[in-house]
Design a protein that fits this description.
The structure is a single chain. The chain is globular. It is 77% helix and 0% strand. It contains nine helices and no strands. Residues 8-12 and 227-231 have low confidence and may be disordered. It is an all-alpha fold.
Length: 231
């Protein structure tokens, strides 16, 4: 199997990435507008789903404990950032891919800054329960857990695909990433610390950041290696 380094030129796909980023940005903006305007059908659906899952969380204490472990340790944003830092070091030390390492670190950092800025801008209150099973701080929209997991897992999957890993490794990585991204969103709603649309917003915004980052990387590669890109 032919394997290339992540900084080697490849056929440019920045057109697809740019279109994906534009669509995701529009979807994110629409959801942001509806949440900020407190659109009644959306708020009602959020409340109904959250009330149901909270009732289950209170009744199913074992599942709730497992969700707390997963969300606080396995899928926590800081766990994801540490994973990203390990990959950054690996890119520099093992592959000498300094540009890609810097690109990865900046993409995750900018995703975090966007998340925090939107939390402050929207300032959406979190769910409040008379019998909470967990607690969280800061504003609700978007979910930082969901957005960070989407950004980190999405970028790492793209790097693995670009690097040309084996089929078994790729399938395992996709499975872990999908379970992590979906799982962390579900745990946040189950634990009653986020509305469902907070999680959906985190997924959309995280995917948008991934698409923009991929576009940036591919565009830079096409400019750096125009002859290869043209072929």
């Amino acid at each position: 199997m032919h394997t290339r380094t992540v900084d080697s030129p490849s056929r440019p796909q920045y057109g697809t990435a740019a279109r994906s980023a534009a669509v995701l940005a529009l979807c994110s903006a629409l959801l942001l507008t509806l949440v900020s305007a407190r659109w009644s059908p959306l708020i009602s659906a959020d409340g109904d789903i959250s009330a149901t899952t909270h009732r289950w969380a209170v009744e199913e204490s074992g599942v709730t404990r497992a969700c707390r472990i997963l969300t606080d340790w396995v899928w926590d944003p800081w766990t994801m950032r540490v994973l990203c830092a390990v990959v950054v070091v690996w890119l520099v030390v093992r592959l000498a891919a300094r540009w890609t390492a810097v690109w990865l670190a900046l993409a995750v950092t900018l995703g975090t800054l966007l998340q925090q800025a939107l939390k402050a801008l929207v300032d959406r209150p979190r769910p409040v329960w008379p019998d909470p099973v967990d607690s969280a701080h800061y504003s609700a929209f978007p979910s930082g857990h969901a957005m960070t997991a989407t950004v980190v897992c999405g970028l790492l999957l793209w790097l693995l695909h670009r690097h040309g890993v084996g089929r078994a490794v790729w399938r395992t990585a996709v499975t872990v990433a999908v379970v992590s991204v979906i799982g962390v969103g579900l745990t946040r709603v189950w634990l009653g610390v986020h509305w469902p649309t907070d999680v959906v917003g985190g997924w959309l915004l995280g995917a948008m950041v991934v698409a923009l980052a991929v576009w940036t990387h591919e565009h830079r590669q096409s400019r750096t290696h125009p002859d290869t890109a043209a072929s």
